């Protein structure tokens, strides 16, 4: 993930580094796994070990948001899950739009991980007349010119940009004008947007680097 | 990203936590940005500040792999970039396969970030007769039954699984039998694979959680 730190950091006061917020998601997933595995409490040491962080890093990260541990107990998993979801804003559900009904947009409509975490895709946008007014993968598709009206009617606050780089900025500008507050950008360009708009860019190559590392490090050690 | 830590950790000796390897990618991107911005050297403090880590965390992460800093200088950017690329295995290029020529597979063929970091997609696989033998998005598509031969001929070592959950395990088994060493899994299931095979699962909801956090935290503070 390449976060667009410039946009994000300058709008948060006091500043919480974006990487800390990213780690909150990792803590949340591990806590959910721990609960699934029957754990009721955990510790900064256990969470750190599961994720490869120092226990000091875990405590420092969580300390940005409050005091969550209990002396002699550690963290209560269910309580910390609820707290993190509230911090991340996923204790509520969010209505999303996707712009770009190409291969990536269609793929993302069907991505189940979004709905599991409280993100519901409620509208698609494109500029191809053949796609407008139809349903694609079960999602109603509108012309980008209708974005302001649809965003207002459906209370859409976040949008996914899945268009070619050449038009990504124009699309993002339209989304911002329509009132969208955050953009997940799959186009490999940096968007120039007002400071109060949050953007996150997706860098899937990081995941592949994890694989190549593991294959290479295995080879270095012999069979 | 939800890494399948079970597969990964048990095969690495001495164990480097997967999260540390993930941070290597982040350090690499920041170093590349620093070089682009004219910096020749940097420090654990600067790298940490850019990413929201403590300087101790940066030093501890890098110490897994060697001694990279110079007293009174810090890190030489170009040298550390080369070292990290070597550690990650991206100082060489990798040949990849994609299985599943649906929306996601087609989208990933066109994903530019892969090639930029040294990952080249050289073959696609599917089981739909209408797709076999054709080129999709410029990529030659083979039947999954041909996977062993194609993997050998094209020296494919990593694969991306972009098929429905119901068939993901069967596809992964076929890839492993064919000799693939690492799998990037977009199907929302945990794959049961031999210990020596590396898998990374992709969790795009984490990126959306970053957005919702920023929108919520902005609102909490008022306009």
TrEMBL record, chains A, B:
Entry's Gene Ontology BP terms: negative regulation of DNA-templated transcription; response to redox state
Signal sequence, start to end: none
Gene3D superfamilies xref list: NAD(P)-binding Rossmann-like Domain (3.40.50.720), Winged helix-like DNA-binding domain superfamily/Winged helix DNA-binding domain (1.10.10.10)
DNA-binding region: 26-65
Boundaries of every CoA-binding domain copy: 89-190
Family annotation (Pfam families): CoA_binding (PF02629), Put_DNA-bind_N (PF06971)
Top-rank lineage group of the source organism: Bacteria
GO CC annotation: cytoplasm
Main localization category: cytoplasm
Binding site for NAD(+): 100-105
Molecular-function annotations in GO: DNA binding; DNA-binding transcription factor activity
Subcellular location: Cytoplasm
Keywords tagged on the record: Cytoplasm, DNA-binding, NAD, Repressor, Transcription, Transcription regulation
Summary of the function given for this chain in its UniProt record: Modulates transcription in response to changes in cellular NADH/NAD(+) redox state.
Subunit and interaction comment: Homodimer.
Family listed: Belongs to the transcriptional regulatory Rex family.
Name by which UniProt lists this protein: Redox-sensing transcriptional repressor Rex
């Amino acid at each position: 993930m390449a976060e667009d730190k410039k946009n994000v950091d300058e709008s948060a006061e006091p500043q919480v580094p974006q990487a800390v917020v990213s780690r909150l998601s990792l803590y949340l997933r591990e806590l959910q796994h721990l609960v699934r595995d029957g754990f009721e409490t955990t510790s900064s040491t256990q969470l750190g070990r599961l994720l490869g962080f120092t226990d000091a890093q875990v405590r420092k990260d969580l300390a940005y948001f409050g005091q969550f541990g209990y002396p002699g107990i550690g963290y209560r998993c269910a309580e910390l899950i609820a707290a993190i979801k509230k911090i991340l804003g996923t204790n509520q559900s969010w209505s999303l739009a996707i712009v770009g009904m190409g291969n990536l947009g269609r793929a993302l409509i069907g991505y189940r991980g979004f709905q599991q975490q409280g993100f519901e895709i409620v509208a698609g946008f494109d500029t191809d007349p053949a796609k407008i007014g139809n349903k694609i993968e079960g999602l109603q598709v509108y012309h980008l010119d209708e974005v302001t009206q649809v965003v207002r009617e459906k209370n859409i606050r976040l949008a996914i940009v899945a268009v070619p780089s050449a038009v990504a900025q124009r699309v993002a500008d339209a989304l911002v004008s329509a009132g969208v507050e955050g953009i997940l950008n799959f186009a490999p360009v940096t968007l120039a947007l007002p400071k109060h708009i949050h953007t996150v860019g997706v860098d899937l190559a990081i995941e592949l680097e994890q694989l190549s590392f593991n294959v290479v490090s295995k080879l270095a050690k012999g069979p």
